[in-house]
Amino acid sequence: MKTKGRVTLPIEKGIEQEIIKLLDRWGADAVRNSDGTELIAGIKDSHMKVYSSYFPTRSDQEWARAHEEQVQQVSLMTKRITAVNKPLTINIMNGFFEEQFKVNYNNDPKKWWEVIDRTTGKVLHSSKWEYDSDNDRVIINQPILFHTYTVSFFAFQVWDSTQMYNHITNNWTKPHEIPYDVRHDETKEHVLEYLEKWLKENKDVDVVRFTTFFYHFTLIFNEMAKEKFVDWFGYSSSVSPEALKAFEEEKGYKISQEDIVDEGYYNTPFRIPKQVFRDYIDFQQKFVSELAHECVALTHKYGKEAMMFLGDNWIGTEPYGKYFESIGLDAVVGSVGNGTTLRMIADIPNVEYTEGRFLPYFFPDTFYEGNDVMKETNEIWLAARRALLRNPVDRMGYGGYLSLALKFPEFVSRIEAICDEFREIHNNMDNKKPYVAPFKVAILNAWGNLRKWQTNQVAHALWYKKIYSYVGVIECLSGMAVDVEFISFDDIIEKDISDDIGVIINAGDAGTSWSGGEYWAQEELLVKLRKWVYDGGGFIGIGEPTAYQRQGCYFQLSDVLGVDKETGYTLSYTNYDELTDGHFILQDNNTFDCGEGIKWIRSASENTEILTMDEGDINLAVNTYGKGRSVYMSGLPYSDENVDLLHRSIYWVTGNGDIEYKWTTDNIHTECACYKEAGKYIVINNSDKIQKTIVYKERVNDSIEIELNPMESKWFNI
Q1: What superfamily does domain 7-57+183-226+273-429 belong to in CATH?
Q2: Active site residues
């Protein structure tokens, strides 16, 4: 019997009959417009719940063009320019797209800009440079020859980043949309007045889908209109002279352009956050949440639900931040491209429901003749399904141009099956929690819970060669039968490690916020972790964990890990590293894919057992440390094999090998989730091939063997 509900369908004008058929096939109970599409007149008569996208800071373009001085700004830094003669002239817009930005000369550049000698790190006094506003140039009359210089400056954002992306992707010819800044009291009041007017006029709308609120993540295009810099966590597009003045009033000290542009790194989350940037994040989150609350209150006043899209203009609304609850949202919807992004949305607290906008997006960069849309669709669903079984989003949907998707009948049929399976998962779970291990797994980094399910990422669900080995760790965990916490180094230093944590994972490149950098020079952190492992805790290090060259070692917990990295200082020592066969962790795997891996890892303890090596470089090793254990991996991309390897590693370091067989399967391409309170369990096939598997229930000798079709899931009564 076909089920209905929990699905939101994107609609557009001109395909009304096709929409009616698809509403039935996909079992949708809600419809929505997308950026670039409009709702259909009379859609309310279909008894569907109606979502409408709303853009608080670009809905009224007449206002934007009439108040150019109140347009949003961004803090930018020029390329590094070497002085080979005098004077030195710097074209400050070189490398930036002039249709996206316009240099701000309204606020005195001599007061707000910074020219920095990057060879010394010193800021030049404003008397040492001049600016040419007609040609967007800065002139340094007496530079020190062969020193490099940069200019940090403010620019107006004269084209909204998302609208620009959509414009380029979809070949739009509509006018450019300009975002305005609610830091200006006049604009702030207008935003609330315009929203109230819109709420009165749009009586058919049930859910206002704020996309999002006020400030876009950092998305900078180059002179060829191609992406130059993307940071989904970036705050540099929320900066302006008005913001910096307000910061000083609230926090009691000045913040500079350099605190934002951060030597050109723009405070990417890979940087260990300085206190001033933490303060700026706190400052913006408080401001954004207070005004967002007013928008939500207005929405509720007119009997509508308030939903936030976790993307685009989401800066300041971070759902794991301390001010999020005060916004009062009914729901959050976000883009789902894998298990990690699904958990990032599903785990959000203090909302009535969550919704996943599954990829692929119905845009022409994906839906074109010759592209394998099915491959991407199935990969995303299989990864997301694992996470759904741990903590599901309440609803699912899609976005973009439905007319494009309709040109791919096989895709339409596949989504019909996925929607049915999504509802089946919810119906059988019956809002009950799945069985998990009797201990928690903690991810340790500089950000802690603020970046829950967001670690080691540049832009969520996008693949980067430098990071996929680390993101794989989080992806593996997203669908694993363990409760996962995200803790910071400060949490350990200021408090103790919670008694319910059985395993701590530190994964990332040296010097990044994820690995820890200079945190590993702090005595209290080292002592607390060593004692915790020695007393029976489990520690897993991946990549360059605890890395900080100091006091004769590179991995500061090399004694715990049993390995260290050769950096050239100990080449005079001879290593006699040999493999150990038959270890529990590799019981199901003959090989280990460490991704990019880390070279020059060597043993550092007599207890170290080396499980895999590549030309003398250790890729996988284990160590005992007092009553505790550790595992070192040089990398861990997401794969069925690595899910199994991490799972076995977690149980090995906690000394709970027997529990490994509780509600698990013996085939690494399959997994099991059990809902004891609901009296059901599910077995899933994560591959595109037929799989046979043994399902272990409460113990090893309590099992059944089943066969699953490609990508199939099967439910059973306990």
Answers
A1: Glycosidases (3.20.20.80)
A2: 312
